[in-house]
Design a protein that fits this description.
- The complex is a heterodimer of chains A (408) and B (292).
- Chain A contains 13 helices and 15 strands.
- Chain A has 408 residues and is of the alpha/beta class.
- Chain A has two domains: 202 residues, Rossmann fold (3-Layer(aba) Sandwich); 160 residues, Response regulator (Rossmann fold).
- In chain A, the strands form three sheets. Chain A has a seven-stranded mixed β-sheet, sandwiched between helices.
- The N and C termini of chain A lie far apart (69 Å).
- Chain B is 75% helix and 3% strand.
- In chain B, strands 1-2 form a two-stranded antiparallel sheet.
- In chain B, helix 5 runs antiparallel to helix 8 and helix 9 runs parallel beside helix 12.
- The longest helix of chain B is centred in the N-terminal third of the chain and has 32 residues.
- The chains are: A alpha/beta (408), B mainly alpha (292).
- Chains A and B meet through helix 1, helix 2, strand 7, helix 8 and helix 9 of A and helix 1, helix 4, strand 2, helix 9 and helix 10 of B.
């Protein structure tokens, strides 16, 4: 027993030494005061989320380098402090609290999951910090925090996505009639589903399947087997990147053949690598793709290719880049890091970004400052992502109906 | 009864059970022989998946060919982990051992995140996505292969434990390590070998994960949690029990996913429901005997 107690004490001793070391290293920040600090909270270590966190980090770092190379802001260097929310609301809250109270950042940027955003904003609203947020598409966040004068939101809200989807499928010829909807069980999936069902029913579609699933599952074949039995014209699912890859692979394995595979945000970098030709004909609603033909998109892609040779960004990278750049612009225009003045300057943003022109306007369900409201539908065609909707942005015709797996 | 759906979900459950079994085997072995619950096993699976992925991405080695290679690589890593982390605490209380393996697990997760970032990577072979049509049922070829490899690994392990001298030594040590020591079995060496073999099995399982799922720093941890459910189901440290436990979990998840309304959401949680039910009703597991 004596021995055991000894080893527990030894373990405690090591822990204490480690904690002291960590504090000492963390404390080093105190000496680096002559910088303008911006804090980002992004997911870097949860299966289905982390890919987006990495995308955002690349965008932030590109913008940070660009701003600092041009001499920083107000004569100071800009420092970006990144916190990992690990996909857990509690960790996300702690990260934000730390950025506000210890690092005293000028603005909070980044963000992804709606569930985490909601918890974070709820916890930190008493500080009323400047939050310029690219995460969260759930209107639960919009209803609660959209009216706050310190909350700026970039990402489209759910209804922007779902109304685009409904408009798109209603225009397909020959007209599809039935649709099966699967959605992940977080706030993101459930709110998306509610709007999708509402808009699709308005357009006269018959919903033959309507169920949630757990993001990060190893096996979607049970759900797909069930959906296959309902024989829908369109299979529409709302999920995160890792789920989507598995869902498509397994749909092929069990020979499930809807006339259209339709999802959300399918232009993540591993889509093509992971699926190859299996990913062809899959369509999805999206904010941006690298193949868009704006001059800012083209020049952004040139910079990106220099920094990350072998990668293709999804929309999170230019969105994060835009997020950082607009905040930096606002600080520059305000001429100070004083919160009220930066907010005033941010309100007047008019910035030609790689995702399109950015201005902040009111959104339909209560948001005061919404940056993006217009989306696109893309489809993978012979390994290339093409814009197929709306017509004025299209780079190719929609390929419909999707041929059966054994006839490809 | 709609037979095609029933048979398809039966087959789905069987196939995923193969993957679960391959992941659980190594944990069972370490628990049976050493009495240590190895939380780091999931990370060994993850390292196996990365070994297989990188062999594929850099050298174009097919994951089924690289399976023995990642098995051997992980065997060596396992020896290393045992020597420097497990062996010094072999005589410590179970809580310390548990915390240590948990620490090793977190260490490897973060190491993987730093080394390889958190992109989920996938191995795409010429035959991935090929589907076999067996009348009413469609089965993915890679999943069928995975299933049979898992069964083969289990059989190989059982033969090893019953026929090979070192395997029999493992069984002896698991029965009673003091008595084994008295009759001249080198207990430490047996532990080392058992941990190495378990890690090798994790490496093989990792190669399977890289083909039918995806490779990601946290991929092992999630599977490891399911493996614990299987351990509880099958009786702690019991190899045939592991196989049956995997089948029960795989089939339950599949049938719940297919037949229960909103089942796709429930299926992922069912493993934990099973743990609770078994622990309350029959704490030794379905096939377990009481361990002293």
């Amino acid at each position: 027993m004596q021995r055991h107690r000894f080893s527990i004490f030894r373990g405690l001793g090591v822990t204490v030494v480690l904690m002291v070391l960590m504090l000492a290293l963390g404390g080093a920040n105190v000496f680096a005061q002559d910088t303008i600090k911006i804090g980002a909270v992004i997911p870097l270590s949860k299966a289905a989320f982390a890919q987006v966190g990495e995308e955002q980090r690349r965008g932030f770092l590109m913008a940070l380098e660009e701003v600092n190379k041009a001499g920083g802001l107000l004569g100071k260097k800009v420092e970006l402090i990144i916190e990992d929310d690990t996909g857990e609301p509690s960790v996300g809250i702690a990260g934000m609290e730390k950025l506000i109270t210890r690092d005293k950042v000028v603005a909070l940027i980044g963000g992804y999951s709606s569930t985490i955003t909601y918890a974070q904003l709820n916890a930190i609203q008493r500080y009323e910090p400047l939050v310029a947020w690219i995460g969260a598409s759930s209107t639960k966040v919009e209803h609660e925090f959209g009216p706050k004068p310190w909350f700026f939101h970039y990402h489209p809200w759910d209804y922007h996505r779902q109304s685009t989807v409904a408009d798109f499928v209603a225009g397909i010829k020959p007209a599809p009639k039935t649709i099966a909807i699967g959605y992940e069980d977080g706030i993101y999936g459930t709110t998306s589903r509610d709007y999708a069902v509402k808009y699709l029913k308005d357009k006269g579609f018959q919903i033959v399947f309507d169920e949630r699933f757990k993001s990060g599952s190893a096996d979607f074949t049970p759900m797909l087997t069930k959906i296959k039995a309902t024989n829908p014209d369109i299979f529409y699912w709302v999920a995160y990147a890792g789920d989507t890859t598995l869902i498509i692979k397994q749909a092929k394995e069990i020979n499930f053949n809807p006339k259209l595979f339709l999802s959300v945000a399918i232009n993540f970098p591993q889509f093509k690598d992971s699926l190859g030709a299996t990913g062809d004909y899959v369509s999805g609603v999206d904010v941006w793709i690298p193949g868009m033909r704006l001059p800012e998109t083209v020049s952004f892609m040139e910079k990106y290719k220099k920094a990350y040779q072998d990668r293709t960004p999804e929309y999170w990278t230019p969105l994060a880049y835009t997020n950082f750049m607009t905040v930096a612009e606002a600080i520059r225009k305000a001429g100070t890091t004083e919160k009220e003045k930066v907010i005033e300057a941010l309100k007047k943003t008019d910035y030609a970004s790689p995702v399109g022109r950015i201005t902040f306007t009111k959104s339909e369900e209560g948001g005061l400052y919404q940056a993006i409201g217009e989306l696109i539908i893309t489809q993978w065609q012979k390994g290339v992502s093409q814009v197929v909707f709306p017509a004025n942005k299209a780079t190719a015709q929609l390929m419909y109906p999707t041929p059966e797996w054994n006839k490809r | 009864m709609d037979w095609p759906i029933f048979l398809q979900s039966f087959a789905n459950g069987m196939l995923i059970a193969g993957l679960y079994a391959s992941v659980t085997l190594g944990i069972t072995l370490v628990l049976g022989v050493m009495g240590i619950v190895n939380f780091a096993h999931g990370e060994l699976v993850m390292l196996g998946a990365y070994t297989s992925y990188w062999l594929f991405a850099l050298l174009g080695v097919d994951p089924l060919l690289s399976l023995p290679i990642s098995g051997i690589v992980l065997f060596l890593i396992g020896l290393f982990i045992f020597r420097f982390t497990i062996r010094p605490i072999l005589n410590d209380p179970p809580l310390n051992q548990l915390l240590l393996t948990l620490g090793v697990s977190i260490f490897f997760q973060n190491l993987a995140m730093i080394l390889w970032k958190t992109d989920s990577r996938s191995v795409v072979t010429a035959y991935s996505g090929i589907s076999l049509n067996l009348g009413m049922v469609h089965l993915g070829l890679t999943r069928i292969i995975t299933f049979f490899i898992a069964v083969a690994l289990t059989i190989a392990l059982v033969i090893f434990l019953h026929k090979a001298r070192s395997g029999r030594a493992m069984r002896a040590v698991s029965e009673n390590n003091t008595a084994s020591w008295l009759i001249g079995i080198n207990v430490n060496k047996t532990y080392l070998l058992a941990f190495g073999v378990a890690s090798g099995l994790a490496g093989a399982a990792g190669a399977l994960v890289s083909t039918i799922m995806y490779t990601f720093p946290m991929v092992g941890f999630k599977l490891c949690l399911k493996a614990f459910c299987i351990l509880v189901l099958g009786g702690l440290g019991n190899i045939p029990g592991t196989l049956v436990g995997s089948l029960i979990l795989g089939l339950t998840e599949s049938f719940v996913g297919t037949y229960v309304p909103e089942g796709s959401g429930w299926a992922e949680g069912i493993s934990f429901v099973l743990i609770i039910v078994i622990l309350v009703i029959k704490p030794t597991g379905l096939f377990g005997t009481r361990r002293e």
